[in-house]
Structures are given as structure tokens and as C-alpha cells.
Amino acid sequence: MKVLFAVSEVAPIIKVGGLGDVAGSLPKALEKLGVDVDVIVPFYSIIKRGDYKIIKQLTIEVPYSGETHDVSVYKTKIPGSNVDVILLFNQRFLSGGGVDAFSSLKDEVARFAFFNKAVVEFIKASFNIYDLIHCNDWHTGLITHLLEEEVGEERPATLLTIHNVSYQGQSSLELVREVDLSIPLHRILQWDLEDNNINFMLEGAASADAVNTVSPSYAKELLFDDIGGQISDILRGRSGRFFGILNGIDNSYFDPEKDRNIKYRFGVRDWKEAKNENKALLQKELSLPVKNVPFVSLISRLDPKQKGLDLLWESLKDILKLDLQFVLLGKGDKKYEEMLANLSKVKKYHEKLSISLGFDEGLARRIYASSDIFLMPSRTEPCGLSQMIAMRYGALPVVHNVGGLKDTVKDGIDGFSFNIFSPNAFLRAVTRAYKLYGSRKWDAMVKNALKNDFSWSKSAKEYKELYKKVIELRK
């Protein structure tokens, strides 16, 4: 079975968010199961060429907006694997981007419209050798339509994975003309364009041979209009071809027993002393007083629509009344960045609060390894990786009981959850964790968290079976 994994980012070559982690891990796990996977991404100018052995393979011609554009095809590998990564370079359309979280801004949508065309031309130049194209999020939503027009009945099967329905990639009718899609050939496209806008995610969900999302609970939630909007209509009509598979994490990458980012490494047997030692070092690093109090953290993109920043902000002063320390690492919404930075300057919080705006992988690992409690009050969460990483490092998560958080955190066993999205419910859950800290039950819960297996091995097997099913559906 030969699969082309089309995606906007792949860690560690280019990583913007959690999608990059998935693209850098799932293909490696599939490779171990005998699936031949190639990953295809834009060749952004910010990719550090010197860090990887990158070889030019060929040049293809891509028709777009009434002109023909040369796209150079390069190849490298995901480090530590035999998985090929195909990098598509075009200075005008594909070199920009890859810096911040991909959004549905006009230039981003145009970039990925061109990327979709280039992927299809690459498939044609590769003599249509793939059995299945695994499309990921709105960035790849037009690939099935384009394959139908360019390859016809001989096209490979397609699977679209919805990683986050909040970002759908919308643009004007003009972009459809630039991509040169034949509107009369696609009924869904005709319907979508009634408002003179095209929605990439909707087109992908409607046209792919099958659709899945990144946790079983989020799959159920997407069937409701208040979560999925128009796409819920599409998914309800495709119930026999819509699935939920939980994401995983790369245990070899997130490994507290071998992690070089932390000084005191640990496992299930020796976590307690090592965590206290790591905590003391981090307290010094962050200019906090060294004291053995619950160490609470949040590592997140500062996205007020999804990540529950309103709950955090409304609860934070009450949380800081408790005898604990709170550390935040993240960047995003400028309003929340300013509010959090200003709060950290208040004198009475100097010994209790540390705000680090930006992202630093090494610091993130040290925070995970030092934390006792990890906050994740997301309004919605398709899967979430941070809660899995936190548990891998012995930090008990406090989560809103939705999506992938619901599928991974067991209240009172390896974490804490709250059902009502409100500041009071969130604060009660944090207080429950705070009161339990240091008890025998706490220690047992930490051990449970450390013993969890969120590796990709189980999920990769499910994806392999889904690939087989989708290929059969296409025949």
C-alpha cells in the first residue's frame, strides 16, 4: 500500500502547531506497519536547509491563474525514519508562510490553492503510483476535485482528516477560476458557491472518499451545527464514511527517561524526587522562589476562541490566592498577551506567577517535567496533544470534558475534568487538584498518568485499516 500524506507542516522540518507533530509521527508509525508513506509539504523559505539532506528530484509545471509555473520537487526524510518528505518549491506561491498558526487569510488560502494544484501535478508526474492520498485539514481540501478532473476514474482513493474544524479556508469565486475548476462538474461546489465564496474544508469533506477526525468524541461533536456549522450537514449525510481515530504522541520524542532538555530524568519508579529537583531548577530559571508548592502550568497557543483563555483569565486571580505557583508559556492573541504580561508585573504576584510569551521547545519540556498540575480549559479540543505530553511527564491535567480531552483524561484516575464551560466549574476542578496534591491518592494518580500509553502504535493500526477500507470503497 502506497500513500501520499498531503499536509501543511511536518515536524521537525517545519512545525507551526500540533498538526506538524502528527505529520512527523503518524507516517513513521505507519512505516513500521509496512505502509509505504510519502509526506508532501510546501518548501517554505524558513526551512533550515542545512539541517537536512535535501536533494532536488525534478521540476514540474503547474497551471494556475492562466499561466504555467515551474515547481521544483525536492526530497528529504523525516529524521530517524525512512519516510520520504517531498518538498514543493515555488518562489511566488510556496516560499512564504510556515511561521505562525495557519489561518484562513486570503494569501494563505491562495498559497494552498496553488499547493493543491501542485500536489495533483506531482501525482501525475509520478505516474499515479499512489493507492491513497491522505489529505489533512482545509489546506488540502481541493485535491479530490482536482484529481477527478485531471486523472478521472483512475484517480487514487482520498481520505480527508479534519484536525480542527474552526479553520476552514474560505475565499472568493475568483480563486475557483484561478485553480481552473470546472464548476458544472461538481454539485457540491455549485452549492458552496451560492454565496460567492468557496470553503476548502467543506469541499474536502464532501468530495473525499471518506472523512475522519482526530478523536472519537470530536467525531460525535462535529455532527452538531454549533460545532461544525455547514460541515455538520455534510458529515451527517456521510455517516457510513465518517470516522474518529485518536491522535497519539511520539514516545521516543517525548520521553522523560531520556529527554536531554531536563537535568533529572525519571520514570514511574523515581518520578517524585526528580520532579522536585527539576521544579527547583526551573523556579530559579524563572526567578520564582524555590519552594515545594504545587507547580501549575499552561502551555498553549493563545487562541481566545478555542483554548479557554476567558476561563483562565476570569479564574486566574482566584487560583493565585492558593499556595501555588503558576507558569504560562505561549503566544498568539495580542490582547491576552498584553493582559497576562501586565498581570505578571503586579508586585504581589512576583513570587507566584511567570509569563513567558513566545515558544521555546526546551523550556516547554522543562515546564512539563516540573509541573504537578497542567491546565487545559479548552472550549473545544479536537484531540489535544498537550494533555498527553503532560501525563507522559507526570503532570496531572485539569481539562474541559470535550473532544479528545474526554477520550484521554479519566477524572480522579489520571487527571481532573469539568463538564460545564464556566469559570466556577474550572476553578472548582483546579481546587480539587490543589487539595489532593501530596496525598497518597495523588501519587497513585501520577503513576497512572505515567503508565498511560498514548503512542501512535494503536492509532496507526486503526489508520492502516481505514486506508484499506477507503481503497475498497473507491473500487
From TrEMBL:
The answer to whether keyword Glycosyltransferase applies is yes
What's in the keyword line of the UniProt record?
Answer: Glycogen biosynthesis, Glycosyltransferase, Transferase
Q: Which reaction does it catalyse?
A: [(1->4)-alpha-D-glucosyl](n) + ADP-alpha-D-glucose = [(1->4)-alpha-D-glucosyl](n+1) + ADP + H(+)
Binding residues annotated for ADP-alpha-D-glucose, in chain numbering? K15
Record EC number: 2.4.1.21
Which top EC class is named for this enzyme in its record? transferase
Query: What pathway is this protein said to act in by its record?
Result: Glycan biosynthesis; glycogen biosynthesis
Q: Which residues form the Glycosyl transferase family domain?
A: 291-449
- What region holds the Starch synthase catalytic domain? 2-236
The Gene Ontology terms for molecular function here are: alpha-1,4-glucan glucosyltransferase (ADP-glucose donor) activity; alpha-1,4-glucan glucosyltransferase (UDP-glucose donor) activity
Q: Which GO BP terms sit in this record?
A: glycogen biosynthetic process
By sequence similarity, the record places it as follows:
Belongs to the glycosyltransferase 1 family. Bacterial/plant glycogen synthase subfamily.
Its annotated function is as follows:
Synthesizes alpha-1,4-glucan chains using ADP-glucose.
Q: Kindly provide the name given to this protein in its UniProt entry.
A: Glycogen synthase
Q: What is the organism field in this record?
A: candidate division WWE3 bacterium RIFCSPLOWO2_01_FULL_41_18
